[in-house]
Amino acid sequence: MGCSECCVRCLRGVPYASLIATILCFVGVALFCGCGHEALSGTEKLIEDYFSNDFMDYALLVNVIQVFQYVIYGTASFFFLYGVLLLAEGFYTTSAIKALFGEFRTTMCGKCVSATFIFLTYALGVTWMGVFAISALPVYIYYTMWSACQLVKNVPDTGISFDDICVDARQYGILPWNASPGKICGLTLAAACNTSELESTYHLFIATFVGAAATVIALLTYMMSSTYNFAVLKFLSRDDCCTKF
After folding, report:
1. Are 215 and 32 in contact (CB under 8 A)?
2. Bridge partners (DSSP) listed for residue 185
3. What is the pLDDT of residues 127-152, one digit of tens each?
4. CA–CA dist 226, 233 (Å, integer)
5. Could you count the other beta carbons within 10 Å of the beta carbon of residue 73?
6. Rounded to an integer, what is the distance from CA 177 to the centroid of its chain?
7. How far apart are CA 76 and CA 120, in angstroms?
8. β-pair partners for 183
9. DSSP letter string over 166-231?
């Protein structure tokens, strides 16, 4: 066998669906965890500087942010390991690899492991759909604040009173209703809009949202490829048993 033929046979054995899903999963989780961590830190700073004068008003929010940041560390570590395991499982179960070695039979333990990965990937996919939906909320909140900033910058053109343009963090549940001031208007809003934290945090939350979407797509790709490979292995194993019988 020539070198080129050997390379072609090896390339045929690569589980491309699992490989693409692994790359997409790593990129998505990296975006979600990295950008989400920084976006939460930026949110805490904006609340502290402009929306509240008393730490007790946002003490619960600070604790929630810290918990989420620790969860992000664990999520990144878990998905790195899980992605490597799914890629290895894809190499093991892909029909191209089995055809390469001329053997489609697998042990009962191997079938159980494949079925377990399919179930776990399905559960993680459903969970991340919820995470994807939740990650859209801060994007919406910051979009409304960004829209208010655009109104502040174009007050002469809109005919709206400068002090009538406000952003109230309490209406989103970020702060309690007794927080002081809880909302910013006029010059205070203009000062907040001119800070780099607002724009960068808004963009970071958008990147977090995109990362969650990429992770969902990766998990769905994993699930489809794993299910297909499991079904092919099961069918060919049954066909092999029937032939021997």
Report:
1. yes
2. 166
3. 999 999 999 999 999 999 888 888 88
4. 11
5. 11
6. 31
7. 17
8. 168
9. EEEGGGGTSS-TT-SB-EEEHHHHHHHHTSHHHHHHHHHHHHHHHHHHHHHHHHHHHHHHHHHHHH
